[in-house]
Amino acid sequence: MSLKLQQEQVLKQVLTQELRQAITLLQLNCAELGEYLDQLALENPLIERKDTDSYQPVYHKKSQDRMTEPYRTHQKESLQMFLKRQAIDLNLSEKNQRIFHFMIDSIDSNGYLNEPIDAMAAVLEVPAEEVEAVLHQLQSLEPAGIGARSLQECILLQLRRKKKRWYEAELIIEEHFFLFARKAWKEIAAKTGVSMKTLQAVQDEVSQLEPRPGLHFSFDEEHVYIEPDVTITVVQDHITFELNQRAFPDVEMNEGYFAMIQDQKRHEAYAYLKEKEQQYNWLVQALKQRKQTMTHVVREIISHQTDFFLTGKHKMKPLTMKRIADILQVHESTVSRTVKGKMVQTPYGLMEMKQFFQAKLEGHSLEEASSYTVKTHIAELIQTENKKKPYSDQQIMTLLQQTFGIRASRRTIAKYREQMNLPSSTLRKRYD
């Protein structure tokens, strides 16, 4: 075997540092960008963020379907601390305090106790009866339903805490909970003699209770308060938009260090500062590019979804990221990164930017209809239906075609309904 040198020309795409930084910045949302810039400022003495005095409202992530009041940040007490404060009035013995503290550390963010009594007793080396007794004391605290081991127990604890006890409701939940939850009310009526009207009244009572009593103390991502990256408003059929200044901040060079670069060219720190100056210039360019790209994408969204902003949710049209990318003459991944994690405040509430990109309903030929539009019509039909005779999926399918000219299969209706967490007609039916 002979060895020989061979020269081969290969075309390879190499990402420059500037391009990598631009890609990174593009996909960050408001909060993530702030953290990223803070970190860069720690590493680079030349970088200073420009402060903005403009007020930006903050909205609750769970209230995306409606406008909400701005939320001012304040210190929240944890569920565990709230329970410990109440425990002072229980006058627990030292032994029971140990059980109590172990128990509240086993409560999840929803307020449920996930650790079995026997398991806690084994770890604490105490009789299970003592653990059970402390649990009853814990369950007597606020909020009602705390320390429950199941949804059934959570509801029962709240019903028993009512000033005016309704023993019939308690009996139904205690002995026929799973039939009740499945709305097999005729079977319950046959077993207990309770009327359908009474069962409906029990349902109405239960619907007012809190299935997750620890929720108000939760710091989970699902319940954080967030800022919109973009605000879109409509005034007299004129659509305008504004970028949140904190989501698209500017940076400036630290003047003191800048003077060092100019005056101390022979200083040993000069090379270090020149490197940091180059990093600063890359950052300025990347932030500028990020702002321009977002501006172009938002303008195209408004252009394609004008009817939505002027008329309402039912006018959302099919739109793909590729279509926007082709218009802007950028790669589809650029639009995807621009949209990722961004929130838009609209006249109809806070929305994820990706919601404006909807697929066309399969098999629909009478008009352009997006899945978002179909879901909106389904939700409206269910909201306005006669609850004593709710629409079946088949009836919704017929109404969509007759009223809105939208053809969709019954399976598609069922799929969209389930995606919106809307129950079946059987579970929506009322008996009063």
UniProtKB/TrEMBL annotation:
Pfam families: Sigma54_AID, Sigma54_CBD, Sigma54_DBD. Residues 271-430 form the RNA polymerase sigma factor 54 DNA-binding domain. InterPro entries: RNA_pol_sigma_54 (IPR000394), RNA_pol_sigma_54_core-bd (IPR007046), RNA_pol_sigma_54_DNA-bd (IPR007634), RpoN_core-bd_sf (IPR038709). Residues 73-257 form the RNA polymerase sigma factor 54 core-binding domain. Keywords: DNA-binding, DNA-directed RNA polymerase, Nucleotidyltransferase, Sigma factor, Transcription, Transcription regulation, Transferase. GO terms for cellular component: DNA-directed RNA polymerase complex. One of its GO terms (biological process) is DNA-templated transcription initiation. GO terms for molecular function: DNA binding; DNA-binding transcription activator activity; nucleotidyltransferase activity; sigma factor activity. Belongs to the sigma-54 factor family. This is RNA polymerase sigma-54 factor. It comes from Bacillus safensis.
